[in-house]
């Protein structure tokens, strides 16, 4: 590994030689600078970052671009060839053809406000985006492996894990204090220890029925989580490491489990060891195959007034009177649909005449017939991801 001080001195020598005309501008200094080339204007630097991958940093725009094919190299945290620019990077663009993002590749790019990952990438390496500055990331469906610490301490707010990922490794999102929602896909079998530790803004957690292992302290310090939707039908199929500091203090977090299984869960998992209270009402609060609803009292007047939808996939279709929250429709003043919901069913919120606000996430692509018919809000922000809006 070449020392940072060496690279700075070498760059100064080159600049002086160019200024005083000792060597012609445009000469190739690849050998002298360990695979990096600096332009005469000192605006771009470039070099190798994989057997068939190259990088270029533009100091004028702050953009780091990765091009080529195949896998990037793995690094150890301060030997990336762009390390001297790491705090100046404002955007990261990974080009088509790259298949694997190297370990520790962009660690500490804390001012990188955006990142682009193309289809075709299958692997995100260990700590690849740790302590990065972007608040959202579109992880393509081709990704099947995300390494430990991949997003440790980043500024992510919402993230959807692709359906091909089966293992959520240790500490993947540890310390992501701004993370409000994460979509864990059906097909995930393992959630590593401390995977979400320190995610103090996380609101709800949906654990799919395929999960067989949850590591110790996976949700340590996640004090904003009111509800865990644990879909595993048989607790004997689940291994769960203890986490006495997980979720809300005093077991205030409700862990909703399939109907009739609460006693079996308590028998295997002492609630105090996981800081949850088991409630077997999953079927009662379903509003989709993997979607759940709840009413909360936001103004402390004793009447629940906010309707929140959590989970993944589509909300069921209704006929206008059979929604599970129908009896609450006149009390609803706000509707919040969580990240991960993809379709709003027919007449889902019809006749919520006192609903003054609605939140629709970017995961939604379909708004069905009469979904918001006769609702009370005067404005609505429909995300650009919506491609279909039904009549009425």
Core attributes:
392 residues; mainly beta; eight-stranded mixed sheet; six-stranded mixed sheet; 3 helices; 7% helix; 26% strand; globular; disordered N terminus
The poorly predicted ranges are 1-35
Outline the biggest β-sheet: 8 strands, mixed
Q: How much helix is in the residues?
A: under 10%
The total strand number stands at 28
Strand percentage lies at 25-35%
**Average pLDDT figure:** 90
Radius of gyration using CA atoms only: 25 Å
Number of helices: 3
Q: N- to C-terminal separation? A: 64 Å
List the helices and strands and how they pair.
Layout: H1 4-19, E1 36-38, E2 44-50, E3 53-58, E4 63-68, E5 70-71, E6 91-94, E7 98-101, E8 114-116, E9 123-124, E10 145-146, E11 158-160, E12 167-168, E13 181-183, E14 190-191, E15 204-207, E16 213-214, E17 227-230, E18 239-240, E19 253-256, H2 262-268, H3 271-274, E20 276-279, E21 286-288, E22 290-296, E23 306-314, E24 334-337, E25 341-344, E26 357-359, E27 366-367, E28 388-389
Task: Give a description of the structure.
With 392 residues, this protein is mainly beta. The protein contains three helices and 28 strands. Strands 21, 22, 23, 24, 25, 26, 27 and 28 form an eight-stranded mixed β-sheet that branches. Strands 1-2-3-4-6-8 form a six-stranded mixed β-sheet, with no helix packed on it. The protein has a four-stranded parallel β-sheet with strand order 5-7-9-10, with no helix packed on it. The radius of gyration is 25 Å and the shape is globular. The protein starts with a helix and ends with a strand. Residues 1-35 have low confidence and may be disordered.
């Amino acid at each position: 590994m070449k020392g940072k001080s060496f690279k700075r001195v070498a760059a100064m020598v080159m600049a002086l030689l160019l200024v005083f005309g000792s060597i012609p501008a445009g000469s190739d200094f690849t050998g002298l600078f360990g695979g990096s080339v600096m332009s005469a204007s000192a605006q771009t630097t470039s070099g190798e970052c994989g057997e068939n991958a190259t990088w270029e940093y533009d100091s004028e725009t702050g953009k780091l671009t990765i091009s080529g094919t195949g896998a990037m190299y793995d690094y150890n945290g301060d030997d990336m060839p762009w390390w001297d620019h790491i705090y100046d990077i404002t955007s990261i663009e990974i080009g088509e053809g790259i298949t694997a993002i190297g370990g520790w590749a962009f660690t500490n790019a804390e001012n990188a406000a955006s990142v682009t990952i193309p289809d075709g990438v299958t692997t995100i390496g260990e700590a690849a985006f740790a302590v990065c500055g972007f608040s959202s990331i579109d992880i393509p469906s081709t990704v099947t492996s995300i390494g430990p610490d991949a997003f440790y301490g980043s500024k992510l707010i919402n993230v959807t894990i692709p359906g091909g990922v089966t293992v959520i490794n240790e500490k993947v999102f540890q310390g992501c204090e701004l993370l409000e929602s994460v979509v864990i896909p059906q097909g995930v079998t393992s959630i590593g220890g401390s995977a979400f530790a320190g995610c103090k803004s996380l609101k709800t957690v949906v654990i799919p029925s395929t999960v067989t292992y949850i590591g110790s302290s996976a949700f340590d310090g996640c004090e904003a989580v009111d509800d865990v939707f644990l879909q595993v039908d048989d607790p004997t199929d689940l291994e769960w490491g203890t986490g006495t500091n997980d979720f809300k203090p005093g077991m205030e977090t409700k862990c909703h489990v399939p109907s009739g299984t609460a006693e079996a869960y308590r028998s295997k998992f002492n609630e105090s060891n996981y800081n949850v209270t088991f409630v077997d009402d999953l079927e009662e609060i379903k509003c989709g195959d993997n979607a759940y609803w709840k009413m909360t009292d936001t103004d402390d007047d004793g009447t629940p007034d906010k309707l929140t939808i959590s989970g993944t996939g589509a909300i069921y279709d209704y006929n206008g009177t059979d929604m599970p929250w129908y009896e609450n429709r006149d009390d609803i003043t706000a509707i919040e649909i969580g990240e991960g919901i993809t379709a709003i069913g027919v007449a889902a919120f019809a006749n919520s005449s006192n609903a003054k606000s609605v939140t629709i996430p970017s995961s939604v692509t379909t708004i069905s017939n009469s979904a918001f018919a006769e609702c009370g809000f005067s404005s609505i922000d429909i995300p650009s991801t919506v491609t279909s809006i039904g009549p009425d």
